[in-house]
Amino acid sequence: MRFPTAMALLLTIALTAGCTQLRQFNRFYLTSCPEDGPNPEQELDIFLQPVDLSDYLERLRRAARGFSLRAIAEVPYSDRSWPIYHASQPGSNGNRRLLVVAGIHGNEVAGALAAPNIFSDVRAHPEVYERLDLHLIVPANPVGLMHGARYNADGCDINRDFAAFKTIEARAIRDVIEETSPDLILSLHEGPQDGFFVIATRGTPSFLAAAVATALQSSGVELATHSHLGSRLSVPGVMEEGWFITGAKILFRIGSLGAYARRNSTPLLTTEGPWGASDIDSRVQAQVLAVRAIANELASGAFGE
After folding, report:
1. Residue 184, Cβ neighbours under 10 Å: how many?
2. Which three-class secondary structure state does DSSP give residue 25?
């Protein structure tokens, strides 16, 4: 990293944000393990649905019947080991591979809660999903999900560990990526903005994000006009990761899943639903619709030919 450039960027952030925002920037982006455990978020207005992890995992296993389901990691916590699952279903005539990562931040609950519904959606729409190989990692952060926490059992942000790979969770996700070589990764997230939007990591065709946004809007999902960072979206529901954000990730060595995918030339989309909305069912359904929309786009042949 070039020190003067880094300082200039930090100065820009400091001048345009208050002390709280600067502290949150440091905690969310620059520090990989800022907590001492899976501590619930105290500062942000997140509407959480408490999750009984044992019940959730049982419901997940029932919903995944008919899929190939295997534990790819066991996370030790509170005298137990909690599994991270890799579910997969090969298409009957497709050769595109879609990997969905759900629940990497445990307090962004809609992604993980959407997983059983995604299995049901596959059964309800075989005309879409049979044309590709579907892979799903869930819950990517089981202990965080249990506590409604962004961080894992050790207080680490898994989505900042895709460079050092200190956490069990990041290593498990990396191993599935290496094993499956997906044509596209879809990472399910939520944020503080009003409305839903999709981020196309630099190098990922923006029309894929636009296709998801169009499908969601046609189903009545409200699209965001501003990103989770507060910047106006030129197209509602769509954010293209430009050179500034990509450069900042490189500059500050932010080890996100998106940065890892970019280094490996794997396209990645990130969904960002509104975590403050009190209608959990609508938040969950929006994530399911996003998965179906990108599956349809990926399987149609418009991408990757």
Report:
1. 24
2. helix
- Taking the C-alpha atoms of residue 35 and residue 156, their distance in angstroms, rounded to an integer, is 7
Tell me the CA distances in angstroms from 9 to 15, 138, 175, 202, 262, one per residue in order: 10, 35, 34, 20, 22
User: Residues 48, 110: contact at Cβ < 8 Å?
Assistant: no
Q: What are phi and psi of 132, to 5 degrees?
A: -150, 165
Contact 109, 148 (CB under 8 A): yes
Q: For residue range 245-287, what is the model confidence (pLDDT) as tens digits? A: 888 888 888 999 999 999 999 999 999 999 999 999 999 999 9
Give the residue range(s) of CATH 3.40.630.10 domains in the chain: 36-181
Give the contacts of 124 (CB within 8 A, at least 6 positions apart).
none
Classify domain 36-181 at the CATH superfamily level. Zn peptidases (3.40.630.10)
Please state the separation of Cα 266 from the chain's center in Å. 15
Encode burial over 230-267: b for 16+ CB neighbours within 10 A, e otherwise: eeebeebbbbbbeeebbeebeeeebbbbbbbbbeeebb
Q: What are phi and psi of 101, to 5 degrees?
A: -110, 120
Could you tell me the pTM of the whole model? Answer: 0.93
Strands 80-89 and 238-240: unpaired
